[in-house]
Request: fold
Amino acid sequence: METLIPHQVNAPCGKSRTSFMKLLLLLSLLQLIFFPDIVSAEPKTDLAAEPLPSLVSAISITGPLDFCGEPVPLDNFEVRQRLEKEMLLMLWDRPQVILWLKRTSRYFPYIERNLNQNNMPDDLKYITVIESSLLPHAGSPKGAMGFWQFMKLTGRKYGLAIDQNIDERRNFFSSTNAALAYLQDLYDLFGSWTLAAVAYNLGEDRLQDEKALQQVGNYYEFYLPSETQRYIFKILAAKLILSNPSRYGFNLSPEDYYPPDTFDQVKISLPGRTPLYLVAQASGTYFKQIKDLNPQIRGHDLPKGTHILAVPRGSGESFHSRFKKLAEKWRQEYKMHIYIVQKGDNLSTIAERFNVTLPALMAWNDLNHGKYIHPGEKLFIYQ
Reply:
């Protein structure tokens, strides 16, 4: 799986070390001057009365430490050094950690409940923090997407719908269920939760190849791509900080945390492509809220078929009767016309001919800018 890697500043050695330390001091002073409210996780706090812990003390880890019940060899100097590096990088980006903490109350309870029901270790919840920062639309240059950063092939293998209209990698509940199933399969394959997490990042085939080539089975002894060499240590750093935030100067009160999304679920069957704003109107809300509650919906319309959607809490009971009236009225007003593409046609001329916008024409027919139309092809047009 692809991981989002924070920008990193590597301290230089030798004569340039003094200049580097001066730069760090200058950056710290600028932060105090221009961003005083984010120095502490608790706004309007007397910093003199409640100072931040020093970075040296913050990364002092006495142990024992484990990941999913599997011990981390802190007595190994290289292991401790790698963990301290990730701790320092994470603690340097305090605003990001504050956002992580705020989001945990929205997403962790569901993950924790499902991990417990499946007899899986609680530490696995920290994977999604490192993968996506608990954001639905997080993506990577390699094509990984969503809360758990599934690639398309793996997501489809574990039951996620992924096409031009729906991408369930962005749906927290669907992607979490798929991720836990995938992690369980990886554990069954490797017999270790640490290696299961490594394979989640690197891919099970690549990890099996590395095991055979290096003749080792302990993550802390593997030589792996730099992203994967950091992966478990980033998860461990997140575990240490998020499980005991006050130790690191993050003193959030209960009201600082984001509340979980509350919603009703409705099931609708559509005979054809239908605009999403009708769902919003039937729910007594606006388009953006429906998109936020259903991040798996890619565009402005829902395709033909059956959909289970989240709508604002309290609107589910009257939703179907309201939606039926709105949809019937919309279909009467916007008659669907089937146009047969002729030789010499292009999308712009067809849109102009029927007095519709080009984006609407493309959305109705699941077209993108890289797709060509051909004579004889059918296009759906709503007028």
